[in-house]
Design brief:
The protein is built from 13 helices and 14 strands. By secondary structure, the chain is an alpha/beta fold. It has a seven-stranded mixed beta sheet. The longest helix has 20 residues, at 39-58.
Length: 373
């Protein structure tokens, strides 16, 4: 009798045109460095996604479907990123909020593209991610964040003007993110008439940068632009201070986190970095920021961009009237604004956002604020 009732219910559902899938949870994988040296970024991803999912679910979800997050740890390692990408695909998850490091996002994107999974990164800024995807016809690789070449266009000319006649050094950590960003800034700075006195790559994960400090001292560096992450930046600053070597340090968006100050301490005073125009100050973010702060977490760095990715996926599903990732990606690229906590964004045909805006921020006494260029 029970089996008969189940079959009758299933047949009724088909007759009414209501597939059982519509009642299922909508799974979104959150992929990033949940452990390791960059775990603070993974925590930002997780906190932002969880807050967004909670807010959407409280309002009834997506056409009645609740969002369920699946947290995956890639440790910002390319091989691990590919491994979890394959696991995400095998589990039938169609949407990914991630990855963080460009060096992870780029190899993982091939797995997602071939499986028709929508990957939208809230942090990876290397242009190759979406440029290569567009050339290969991969429509489901997207970015709700800025690109390195955009940061280069913004800050390269500024450095050339601000530090004209000064001895400028360009450093990078040899990674997809760090070198890509440093090269973008270097290129635009050079075009604007300023040539660096030293261009150098370091090995991420090293603990002794005394040889580098000696090179900076010999170069009489006034200004150093470093494409890399906070663990190395903090060590370089502290070891430079130990040798009484002083210079103005500037970096990209990776140090928009209290973790930078935790490593650098007082040597981080005055360090500058570029970041998309302060998302926490936007009126669209007010309620989300208050709620996240009430939970005991400050939504620094990529928190609100991860939140925005979940919002964008939800709106894409609603627009497409489907959870087919290819259709959702197409719906998000239809030229209409997608309303998020970081503002209304419009995606171009490559899956990048249009008209990104930036701030130059400066660290002071353990916190950072935007300054006018």
């Amino acid at each position: 009798m029970l089996l008969k009732r189940i079959m009758q219910a299933a047949l009724l559902g088909v007759a009414l045109g209501a597939p059982a899938a519509l009642a299922d949870d909508l799974k979104i994988a959150v992929a990033g460095p949940m452990t390791g040296q960059l775990a603070n970024i993974g925590d930002q991803f997780k906190q932002g996604a969880q807050a967004a999912a909670a807010a959407i679910n409280e309002k009834g979800g997506i056409k009645g479907r609740q969002i369920k997050l699946v947290i995956e740890d890639d440790v910002c390692d390319p091989k691990q990123a590919v491994s979890i990408a394959n696991r995400i695909v095998a589990e039938g998850i169609k949407f990914v909020d991630g990855h963080a490091c460009s060096g992870s996002s780029i190899p993982a994107s091939a797995v997602y593209a071939e499986a028709g999974v929508l990957m939208m990164t809230p942090a990876s800024s290397n242009p190759d991610l979406t440029e290569a995807a567009a050339k290969k016809g991969w429509s489901t690789i997207m970015r709700l964040y800025t690109r390195d070449d955009g940061q280069g266009e913004f800050v390269g000319p500024w450095i050339a003007e601000k530090y004209k006649g000064k001895r400028v050094v360009i450093l990078h950590d040899k990674g997809a993110y760090g070198k890509g960003l440093a090269d973008a800034v270097k290129g635009k700075m050079n075009e604007s008439g300023l040539k660096e006195v030293l261009y150098e790559g370091i090995n991420a994960g090293d603990k002794d940068y005394s040889a580098l400090i000696t090179k900076l001292k010999d170069a009489k560096a006034d200004f150093v632009y470093f494409g890399g992450y906070h663990p190395e930046a903090g060590l370089i600053l502290r070891q430079a201070a130990d040798q009484n070597v002083k210079f103005q340090l500037m970096m990209g968006d990776s140090i928009a986190s209290p973790e930078f100050w935790a490593v650098a301490g007082k040597t981080g005073e005055g360090v500058m970095f570029t970041f998309p125009a302060n998302p926490q100050a936007r009126p669209e973010a007010k309620a989300a920021v208050e709620k996240i702060k009430a939970s005991g977490f400050t939504p620094d760095g990529f928190t609100l961009f991860s939140y925005a990715v979940v919002e964008a996926i939800a709106q894409g599903v609603e627009r497409a009237g489907s959870d087919d990732a290819v259709k959702v990606a197409a719906a998000l690229k239809d030229g209409k604004p997608v309303n998020t906590v970081v503002g209304a964004v419009v995606f171009d045909e490559k899956g990048d956002i249009k008209d990104a805006k930036y701030d130059i921020n400066v660290w002071h006494d353990g916190a950072y604020t935007a300054m006018k260029p």
